[in-house]
Amino acid sequence: MTPPRNSNAARDIANVLHPYTDARAHQKNGPLVITRGEGVRVFDEQGNAYIETVAGLWCASLGFDNERLVQAALKQMRQLPFYHAFTGRSHEPAIDLAEMLIERAPVPMSKVFFCNSGSEANDTAVKMIWYFNNAIGRPEKKKIIARIKGYHGVTVASASLTGLPYNHKLFDLPIQGILHAGTPHYYHCALPGESEDQFTTRLANELEEMIVREGPETVAAFFAEPIMGAGGVIVPPAGYFEKIQAVLRRHDVLFVADEVICGFGRTGSYWGSQTFNMQPDILTCAKALSSSFLPISAVMVNDRVFQGLADGSAGLGTFGHGYTYSGHPVPAAVAVETLKIYDEMDLVGHVRKVGPVMQEGLRRRFSDHPLVGEIRGVGMIGAVEFVSNKETRANFDPAVKIGPRLVKIAEGHGLIMRALPGDGIAFSPPLIITAEEVNDMLDRFGRALDDLTVQLRRESIT
Ligand code: PMP
């Protein structure tokens, strides 16, 4: 149906080029225009309410309204609406926020560098690692290993770290010197008869073989999300990161934790690094840092990395990197207020209470469903994966587009959902969600799944 002239939908179709959107199909389908938010819900132009089951893009941890964050932004805009951090300039919001992040870090960290997005934070980490190795006299140690199905962003270096085909092949990526190790997804990647322990040992051995093959003197760093998010909500088996880190230590390879999704309570600890016993040298975070009310991200480095960077200033020249809006005072002030709110409401304690309602609810209600292969997740992040055959664990023919179909059906049941690569559907609601709202979300999801089941039978797909 053609939207009315001058409607938001018509003006969107005429003017907006959307990220991650089929541009041709959008000309026909048009946008879903969201006009306001309240708690875990957003509302469209017709006034329909939707529970945001992925907190937008895994990010709106405090939901879609918060007066304290509004006031923090206003106050800072009146006081000092902009100043930068180049050539030693500074301001209180950035100083406060850096101090708060260092205090809360999962391992001792030394300094914080601010950026505006997760992609920028990861690109910055890559450049810091290259500069660090130049500074300490090992310029050949530059290769970086990430993982197949990892997601680290879309800028040129971070998209190269991302391990998903559609982020690479259409853009002639990855750039040189970026490699991808195996995915810790036991359900799909384990060999027949392999225990979880044998599986993680094999992954660590394969990583070590890759480092040795490349030459340890050429391998600088390993990037990992605690739980792989956009690649499928893949939770590593117990012991995985311990074994991986032992390999990294043996070959003096820096470990970077990408906490862009897992940071700030998502997994039921303040950091995903704590849930999975990770001791990163560098940590990147974004999204929930400001509850996404304004864009801001951060890179934390430990003292060893900082000392190398500082040596670089003397030996090589100043670290020639930074963004106009690195540590912008308004998002920084909002992030400071966000972290205060997390402490005051004991957000991590809340996730520990309500996370299990979601995890147990998903498993109890949907494990036995004929379309469901695996249900996975920790804390307030999870996924349901659909299979065409529970025995072989095969997914559906991609042409069936099972995830996007379910997303569309779920919209009619008052849910905004997100399909994942590999026939999954994600659950990562605002962390403030109550047990009651979790049950409402799962009831609605159940009804959408029933509709999908009927639709697939009608089309003789199942
Ligand atoms: N890292 C991870 C783990 C992410 O999930 C994302 C975004 N989903 C990014 C990096 C990139 O963040 P941004 O979209 O803010 O650039």
From TrEMBL:
Q: What Gene3D superfamilies does the entry give? A: Aspartate Aminotransferase, domain 1, Type I PLP-dependent aspartate aminotransferase-like (Major domain)
- PANTHER family hit by this protein: ADENOSYLMETHIONINE-8-AMINO-7-OXONONANOATE AMINOTRANSFERASE
* Assigned keywords, A-Z: Aminotransferase, Pyridoxal phosphate, Transferase
Q: What is this protein called?
A: Aspartate aminotransferase family protein
* Transmembrane feature ranges: none
Do the record's keywords include Transferase?
A: yes
Q: Which residues form a coiled coil?
A: none
* Similarity comment text for this entry: Belongs to the class-III pyridoxal-phosphate-dependent aminotransferase family.
What's an example of a GO molecular-function annotation for this chain?
A: transaminase activity
- What cofactor is this protein dependent on? pyridoxal 5'-phosphate
The record's section on InterPro entries has: Aminotrans_3 (IPR005814), Aminotrans_3_PPA_site (IPR049704), PyrdxlP-dep_Trfase (IPR015424), PyrdxlP-dep_Trfase_major (IPR015421), PyrdxlP-dep_Trfase_small (IPR015422)
Question: Is Signal a UniProt keyword of this protein?
Answer: no
Spell out the SUPFAM superfamilies in the cross-references.
Answer: PLP-dependent transferases (SSF53383)
